[in-house]
Amino acid sequence: MSGHSKFANIKHKKEKNDAAKGKIFTVIGREIAVAVKEGGADPANNSKLSAVIAKAKANNMPNDTIERGIKKAAGDIGNVNYVYNTYEGYGPAGTAIIVKTLTDNKNRTASNVRAAFTKGGGNVGTTGCVSYMFDEKGQIIISKEECETPADDLMMLALDLGAEDFSEEEDSYEIITDPESFPAVREGLEKEGIPMVEADVTMIPQNYVTLTSDEDKKKIQRILDLLDEDDDVQDVYTNYDDGE
Q1: CA 186 to CA 41: how far, in whole Å?
Q2: 206 phi and psi, to 5 degrees?
Q3: What pLDDT, on the 0 to 100 scale, is given for residue 219?
């Protein structure tokens, strides 16, 4: 977020999510199932599965849980019917929100997403109505506390691997890649033993919106909380700057 630590925001998000680990593991379990169905159960030959495993580890999913998920998915390929969908819309004061879902029931998911927007005074729009305000980028966050590699060396490593940008925050480093280069950069850092707090392809707002009305802040938080509670929702991106 502009003006304050991205790592602090991630830690805040993770602390909140610690109370809902079951939700995160359900979400990642579905991603594993889809990745195995599309590319097989061997992460060495399935970059999508490899990326999901990295995401699982970043969210502290135990290795045996990951392995069980892969084995279950490999034996259950014919029954995996999850589909990805993206919804775009507006929160209060024109804030932009993108919702990515993975579901086995599109009607249920569409209804729940619309209800979340409505309850927070927002509305779902048409495809493309807000996505032009975001850039799709690979984003890797590294905690300074956990990383022994000097900043200059880490920057050179990231750029050599194909990263677009490297920035230093108060308590973390941020590496930005284009979506196509992301797997190679993430895998290269992993091979060098660089610990990653967050590593994912994400939607980064070109500009952030600060809400001045307490009522608007409550409304958008209502939307985000309802979406966060929905097991069908994979990721939510917004240009709302909560200032935390």
Answers
A1: 20
A2: -75, -30
A3: 96
The predicted structure's pLDDT at residue 4: 44
Query: What residue ranges in the chain does DSSP mark as E strands?
Result: 83-90, 96-103, 123-124, 134-143, 165-168, 172-177, 198-205, 233-238
Exposure on the CB side of residue 6, measured as CA atoms within 13 A: 20
Please report, as a single letter, which amino acid is at residue 34: V
Q: In what order do the strands lie in the sheet with 83-90?
A: 123-124, 83-90, 96-103, 233-238
Per DSSP, the residues of 121-173 read T-EE--TTTTGGGEEEEEEEEEETTT--S-HHHHHHHHHHHT-SEEEE-SSEE
- Answer for the pair 51, 189: CB distance below 8 angstroms, yes or no: no
Q: What is the mean pLDDT of each run of 10 residues along the chain (244 residues)?
A: 49 55 84 92 91 85 92 81 94 95 95 97 96 94 92 96 94 93 91 89 92 94 93 92 70
